[in-house]
């Protein structure tokens, strides 16, 4: 798409000025911002930023939840030829130091007092951070810091600058080119400092438009934006595609109201990582356990029918007349109310990405009439590489290459991608750029996979993570971890086994799901640590592990990856403790080092191990948690294919 973000904004404002562009829920009421009002706001903010000294090519950090004035601030920066750098709002202040110093950021637009406090805390380390503007003034009335002001103040400065420089905004927007850098996304890498992924207007908009064509998106779509804007997945769906298509983006009041807001908005186009879909299904499971006997019977009866014929209906395959009538009855009593409860009554297209999704979870949503599909991409590819057509959605693949994408595999099975959506490079990191971009324009994804007979991409694991047991059997840790997480009782898992005789695992239970399970059985517990050490919970998890082992045994290539021993960790893995990335990917290497004592206990044949671990609380305090963890042996199975 040969245009820029600000030009698309002005096109929408000219062609459909009164149409809604953004909605924000405030004090329980949805407030609408039309395209004309949004364009006026962006013009004033851009003029204010120019008055403050923002120059072409400089970086502007944006930190907060999805908020209309933060979106407008990104557009305002891009209107001046500056570069928007969204950062994760839930990151600790220390995590902001590297991006801000690396990109030499002098300007920041943030949501509220929490983000202001973080930036003020690190300001001594980021001397160039001269200007901080905030959207929500609550709690900030008596702050007296140099360069700190409200967005309202910035807007007023912009109005004065506009009056003195008529036509400035239009000239600035006209000067921007599609190949100019538009945004930079810092990847939350599993090792080392994050890398700044540099994208142009063209690379982001070209892929956004390709995705829109694939799913026939129009300006009539409704989207709920509730994931971090710093995650490129959310940024593409609620910013790049928003401007490419002109649909409506709805911003929830806060994280705690997102599920309620989802029901109120009833989006037609939805995107979330698997953990969100897992959480929604867990809540349904918990509610059904609380339901009466008749409702439970109806639910089980119609869900069995849905799982048998629902996916076939979604894929357009023939279904018998009696089954059709039976399904229609189920739709009236179970599926329709369930979709409404989840907030998916109007969903036309729903995507999940970022991690593998469990077959049972995937089948559940498609069986009740939700067009859930998978896509494959990354920050470096502007998300859209492979997508699943409506009638070809499967849990074990991630779709076909879409318009403008080429893929190939090197000798060790690593996937390489070439498209117009590739990163321009990693900021100030030529060595890292050279590692992933070949001289002839291919991007090394780091993922191992293959194309199946139908031309669909199948990802096995990260290429660097695929290892071997000492006996030579393949070990794919992420594949094993994802299979464990398919169970509602398991929230996170970390598998070990490379260059070892067997596979062992750390497991985090899902506190809500297991807590509800325990309450149904009158099993008292005092918190996560106490619940995780209950013999009944250990047995529950062992059953899950052994089901995974039985499944792995059916795949000759991965039969050796069965889990021989496991333990349930005494604390939940946490990004604040460095154990997860901000997108909730496990830092397997860091976890292995941090809990080396537990790894040694698993492989040393011990039946239990005492551990004490330092933790960081939400309010910034530090402390420690300790426990004596039981180590459980799990049954493994001979390879089914070998046995045959």
Would you spell out the secondary-structure blueprint of this structure?
Elements: H1 5-15, E1 20-26, E2 29-34, H2 35-51, E3 59-63, H3 68-79, E4 83-87, H4 94-102, E5 107-110, H5 113-122, E6 131-134, E7 148-150, H6 151-164, H7 168-175, E8 181-186, E9 196-200, H8 201-214, E10 222-224, H9 232-245, E11 248-251, H10 258-265, E12 269-271, H11 274-290, H12 293-314, H13 321-342, E13 349-352, H14 359-367, E14 372-376, E15 386-387, E16 400-401, E17 405-409, E18 414-419, E19 425-426, H15 430-436, E20 443-451, E21 457-462, E22 467-468, E23 474-475, H16 477-485, E24 490-496, E25 503-509, H17 511-520, H18 528-532, H19 535-553, E26 563-568, H20 588-594, H21 596-603, E27 608-616, E28 622-633, H22 640-643
Parallel strand pairs: 1-11, 3-4, 3-5, 5-6, 6-7, 10-11, 12-13, 13-14, 25-26
Antiparallel strand pairs: 1-2, 8-9, 9-19, 14-15, 15-16, 17-18, 18-20, 20-21, 22-23, 24-25, 26-28, 27-28
Helix pairs in contact: 1-2, 1-3, 2-3, 2-6, 8-9, 11-17, 12-13, 12-14
Structure description:
Among the domains are: 5-271, 3-Layer(aba) Sandwich (Rossmann fold); 467-643, GMP Synthetase, Chain A, domain 3, CATH 3.30.300. It has 644 residues and is an alpha/beta fold. It contains 22 helices and 28 strands.
Question: What labels describe this entry?
Answer:
five-stranded mixed β-sheet, five-stranded parallel β-sheet, 22 helices, GMP Synthetase, Chain A, domain 3, Rossmann fold, 40% helix
* Low-pLDDT windows of residues: none
Q: How far apart, in Å, are the first and last alpha carbons?
A: 54 Å
Number of H- or I-type helical stretches: 22
Integer average pLDDT: 92
Task: Specify the structural class.
Answer: alpha/beta
